[in-house]
Each structure stands twice: as C-alpha cells, then as structure tokens.
Amino acid sequence: MNNCFCIDGDTIRLEIKAVPGASKTEFAGVKDSRLRIRITAAPEDGKANAELLSFLSKALGCPKRDLRLFSGEKSRVKVVALPVGCLARVEEVVGRG
User: What domain range is 45 assigned to?
Assistant: First the structure.
C-alpha cells in the first residue's frame, strides 16, 4: 500500500493530488504516494481548495475548522493537516485506494 500520510505529533499530514474540473467530487485511489481526489470546482479564486476541505471534512468526519491546507495552495499537489483523531477514517479511505 502506498503511504500518502504521516503523523507529526497530534497532526496527520495527508498528501493529495487534486484533480479539478471533474464531473463528481470523489476519492480516486492512491497513486505515487498521494491520495487522488477529483473535484468538481474550477481551480480559480480558491474554489477548488474550499471544496476539497469541505469534501474531506464530510468524508473523514472531521470538523472543517480542524482541517488546514498546509501546502500547495496554488498547486494540484497539496498537503492537508488534520487531527490525529481522524486516523482510523484516513486509514480506511487510503486502504480503499
């Protein structure tokens, strides 16, 4: 299994490859040690980033206020920081990938 996340203290850093402009926002597996997520929003004015964080919040059961875009604001390759309390759900999602 490709490992697309690491634990740093009480934070999980999840590496993501965002694919904007998709017909549906969804997980698209793990490739090159990154969790691929298709996003319907266009990559303009932060819309894709906002949708990504909203989608992750719902899918992982973490409050949106606890998610943070750690790096990659203007890139398709991103790192999202989230609380270690979401680890079980992250492992479940990554295991599907």
Answer: 5-96
